[in-house]
């Protein structure tokens, strides 16, 4: 069983074994790119390490030593050499990239002897001792858990004593002194000498990388991105190259295209005379990659050539780490670059045009939920004119957002819990801030570039971010942010524009985006590939228009009760509910009929002939009733009854368990005249539309909460009587359908009976989940989180459909329903209809359409297309 592979032995297809970084280092080695030599310890080894109680077993150590000897031979250096020592990096690398979440150790192999060798071989003593002190600090921190500040404070102290500002102004003698002090810290902290044996350093570091798989921030990151905890990380051991050898050395990161917009130009940053994380950590502000052309033209040209090679090879935008050692270029990492939704679509569309991928591949490149970002609001142009600009930073992750500023991740989390919109303001962020970043509306940092931690993580989360904003001074300690002439305290409102990098004072109004360009083209391809229909849940003409703009193919759920809540109408609704006689009720319904008819008319008009499913009244009646005495009084006057009498009636309608109470079709059993009024409005409006010469409308009348065939028979009979009455009166007809919400478990398992009377089923998966599990939708929030945290459920079943249970009920309903009604039309109108994983399931079980909120239509469409590919 092989646990260690040299870069020559791997390839990109071995990602799950070698991790993403290792597989790509191998691939690049084998296509002839300048990659420092090394080897990869597999993820399988990491998994076994945990099984072995976190011990590196002997056979593994043997394999590592064999590979090490191979490496020494290949590059002609060896550990602890007095003249030309081998130094390596020990790098984590999991299957899915988790930027900055796990640990890496650089310059390993340095000790009191090899540091002299490094000085000798490079003729640069300062550099050698600088590397040694970096290594001691990194190793102590990452592998041995000694807090970084122990070392950093010594460094600061020395700089202060010498009156210098930049680390680079320390000379070799200073650094030698520091190295001694660092080793003392190590001794004091751990009661043992700093390990001089490189093999021991290596083993401890490998263990540290394995251990970092389970550090808290890596766990949070995995939870956030749905990455399994069982994959483990690989460890890459790679010979060091040095970007910190002077002015002809440097290090950088570049994207082959712009990760914020997708534009096809090289995008990145570099620092001269720097190592490793310096660029990402935002310690010094780096230079734009294009400037490299001026100072090292040949290196720049070679790099550009390599970026093209890598893009063509991987057929996707790449995120590349490189280092220049004394004018020689090395590539240290490549991966598919993280990008915003906007960039994701632009790149996918461009790659199709460039002939690198086909449309189906393009469709698979974009994560449906990411589209959310594109549908996000921007600041209103009109209000921007008066807005006060307080600073400008880098446009690190697009979007527009406002909120109160907080300086610590914890404070943001608390503010969010209080219901505030919070913006995290930091000098720079680090992986420990991850939970605050999740909770924040937006992120603002004073330091760091486009590839800094804040920028990368924010883009991944689709969160608005302005980074490297040097116009502001941030004091996290005193919780103050200063601009040139103003001071902002915790809790003050600011607004961020992540597309321009501009920071505004106050809380600025936002507007909805318009869609077109690459997005339009992409969605055309999605529509070509997709077979399942996508409709919208919309209750009024405005939502319907929005839905159409996002490409809805009809309305899958119009909740008529939403039409009743409007202030002017609720009085009539209340009268209807509280009526004691049929006469009274009918007169209230007569008031409602014209308004309801007008609603439907406008809705049909907006939908331009597309199907509209109207659900008859569903919620328990008391939801409409007044609660406050003064409102009851007002209503009593309007109804000409006494206050006490009315109050009794209101109280009489209260239920112990309203969601399982007098609602849905059960209302129509008691008060058939309510549904008859609604049906009349639906049909009359349809005939009106037809007579006005508009596109024919084809209403689908949906009866909610059916659990028994006889309920459906009874209600349908009433509905049909009213329809025929209208047809007669108007001497005209329209096409229509009558179907049912499929949301009561009993209906699912008697679907063969139900389907004899229903032309369509629309799965109401919110109720089906509620009744299937017996979880009250309104109360489950209190305890379902715990189910997820304790691993009892993988996901909240109200968010992602429970395929095994609720999904099974759907499958049974479809199978039985089709037995007696092969033409049965099938859809879903629960919240799940806009959730990608559930949409995929709906596709698999053969639904004709999903229906979701207007803003999720593009997401549902993409998920449906992906299910097809
Ligand atoms: P991460 O996954 O957090 O990016 P990496 O393993 O890529 O961690 O390493 C962190 C930094 O160290 C990167 O900037 C990388 O380029 C640099 N680095 C890693 N290995 C070497 C090496 N052998 N020589 C020089 N720099 C290295
Ligand atoms: Mg890296
Ligand atoms: Mg329901």
Offer a quick outline of the entry.
With 869 residues, the chain is an alpha/beta fold. The protein contains 36 helices and 31 strands.
List the defining traits of the structure above.
single chain, 869 residues, alpha/beta, Dna Ligase, domain 1, D-amino Acid Aminotransferase, Chain A, domain 1, Glucose Oxidase, domain 1, 5 domains, 8-stranded mixed beta sheet, 8-stranded parallel barrel, 36 helices, 47% helix, 17% strand, binds adenosine-5'-diphosphate, binds magnesium ion, metal-binding, transferase, pyruvate, kinase activity, EC 2.7.9.1
Based on CA atoms alone, the radius of gyration comes out at 33 Å
- Overall pLDDT: 92
Number of strands: 31
Flag low-confidence runs. none
Could you give the distance between the termini? 37 Å
Helix count, DSSP H or I runs of 4 or more residues? 36
Helix content: 40-55%
Family: Belongs to the PEP-utilizing enzyme family.
GO molecular function: ATP binding; kinase activity; metal ion binding; pyruvate, phosphate dikinase activity
Enzyme class: transferase
Organism: Tissierella pigra
């Amino acid at each position: 069983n092989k646990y260690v592979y040299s870069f020559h032995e791997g390839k990109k297809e071995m990602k799950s074994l070698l991790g993403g970084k290792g597989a790509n280092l191998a691939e690049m080695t084998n296509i002839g790119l300048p990659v420092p030599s090394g080897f990869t310890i597999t993820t399988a080894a990491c998994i076994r390490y945990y099984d072995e109680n976190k011990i590196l077993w002997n056979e593994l150590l043997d394999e590592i030593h064999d590979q090490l000897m191979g490496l020494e031979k290949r590059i002609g250096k060896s550990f602890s050499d007095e003249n030309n020592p081998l130094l390596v990096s020990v790098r984590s690398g999991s299957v899915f990239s988790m930027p900055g979440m796990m640990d890496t150790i650089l310059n390993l192999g340095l000790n009191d002897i090899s540091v002299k060798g490094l000085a000798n071989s490079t003729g640069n003593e300062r550099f050698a001792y600088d590397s040694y002190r970096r290594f001691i600090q990194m190793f102590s921190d990452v592998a041995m858990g000694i807090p970084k500040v122990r070392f950093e404070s010594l460094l600061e102290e020395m700089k202060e004593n010498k009156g210098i500002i930049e680390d680079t102004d320390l000379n070799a003698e200073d650094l030698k002194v520091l190295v001694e002090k660092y080793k003392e810290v190590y001794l004091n902290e751990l009661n043992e000498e700093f390990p001089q044996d490189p093999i021991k350093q290596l083993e401890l570091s490998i263990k540290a990388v394995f251990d970092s798989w389970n550090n808290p921030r890596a766990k949070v990151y995995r939870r956030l991105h749905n990455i399994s905890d069982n994959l483990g990380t690989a460890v890459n051991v790679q010979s060091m190259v040095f970007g910190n050898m002077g002015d002809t050395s440097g290090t950088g990161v570049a994207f082959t295209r712009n990760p914020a917009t997708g534009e096809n130009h090289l995008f990145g940053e570099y620092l001269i005379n720097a190592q490793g994380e310096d660029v990402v950590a935002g310690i010094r502000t780096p230079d734009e990659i294009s400037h490299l052309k001026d100072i090292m033209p040949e290196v720049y040209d070679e790099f550009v050539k390599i970026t093209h090679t890598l893009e063509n090879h991987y057929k996707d935008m790449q995120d590349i780490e490189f280092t220049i050692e004394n004018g020689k270029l090395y590539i240290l990492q490549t991966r598919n670059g993280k990008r915003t939704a906007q960039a994701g679509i632009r790149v996918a569309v461009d790659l199709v045009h460039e002939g690198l991928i086909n449309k189906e591949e393009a469709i698979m490149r974009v994560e449906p939920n990411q589209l959310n970002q594109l549908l996000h609001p921007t600041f209103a142009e009109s209000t921007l004119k008066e807005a006060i600009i307080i600073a400008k930073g880098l446009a690190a992750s697009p979007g527009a957002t406002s909120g109160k500023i907080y300086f610590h991740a914890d404070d943001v989390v608390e503010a969010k819990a209080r219901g505030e919109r919070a913006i995290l303001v930091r000098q720079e962020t680090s992986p420990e801030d991850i939970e605050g970043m999740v909770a924040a509306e937006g992120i603002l940092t004073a330091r760091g570039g486009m590839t800094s931690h804040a920028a990368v993580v924010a883009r991944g989360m689709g969160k608005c971010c302005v980074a490297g904003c040097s116009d502001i001074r941030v004091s996290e300690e005193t919780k103050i942010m200063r601009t040139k002439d103003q001071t902002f305290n915790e809790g003050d409102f600011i607004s961020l524009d992540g597309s321009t990098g501009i920071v505004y004072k106050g809380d600025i109004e936002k507007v909805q985006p318009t869609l077109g360009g690459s997005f339009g083209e992409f969605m055309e391809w999605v529509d070509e590939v997709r077979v399942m229909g996508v409709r919208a849940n919309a209750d009024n003409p405005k939502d319907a228009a929005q839905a159409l703009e996002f490409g809805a193919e009809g309305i899958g759920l119009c909740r008529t009760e939403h039409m009743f809540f409007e202030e002017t109408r609720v009085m009539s609704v209340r009268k209807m509910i509280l009526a004691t006689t049929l006469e009274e009720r009918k007169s209230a319904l007569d008031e409602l009929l014209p308004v309801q008819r007008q609603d439907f008319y406008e809705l049909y008009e907006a939908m331009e002939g597309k199907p509209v499913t109207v659900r008859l009244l569903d919620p328990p009646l008391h939801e409409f009733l007044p609660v406050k005495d003064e409102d009851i009084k007002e209503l009593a006057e309007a109804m000409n009854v006494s206050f006490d009498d009315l109050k009794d009636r209101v109280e009489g309608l209260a239920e112990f368990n309203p969601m399982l109470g007098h609602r849905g079709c059960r209302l129509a059993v008691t008060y058939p005249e309510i549904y008859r009024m609604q049906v009349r409005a639906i049909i009359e409006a349809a005939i009106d539309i037809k007579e006005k010469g508009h596109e024919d409308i084809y209403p689908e009348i949906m009866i909610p909460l059916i659990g028994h065939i006889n309920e459906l028979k009874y209600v349908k009979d009433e509905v049909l009587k009213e329809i025929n009455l209208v047809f007669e009166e108007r001497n005209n007809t329209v096409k229509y359908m009558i179907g049912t919400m499929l949301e009561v478990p009993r209906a699912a398992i008697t679907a063969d009976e139900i389907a004899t009377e229903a032309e369509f089923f629309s799965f109401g998966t919110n109720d089906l989940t509620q009744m299937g599990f017996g979880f009250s939708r309104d109360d489950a929030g209190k305890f379902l989180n715990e189910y997820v945290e304790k691993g009892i459920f993988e996901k909240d079943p109200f968010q992602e459909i429970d395929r095994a249970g609720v999904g099974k009920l759907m499958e049974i309903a479809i199978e039985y329903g089709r037995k007696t009604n092969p033409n049965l039309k099938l859809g879903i109108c629960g919240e799940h209809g806009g959730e990608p994983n559930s949409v995929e399931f709906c596709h698999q079980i053969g639904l004709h359409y999903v229906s979701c909120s207007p803003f999720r239509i593009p997401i549902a469409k993409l998920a449906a297309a992906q299910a097809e590919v």
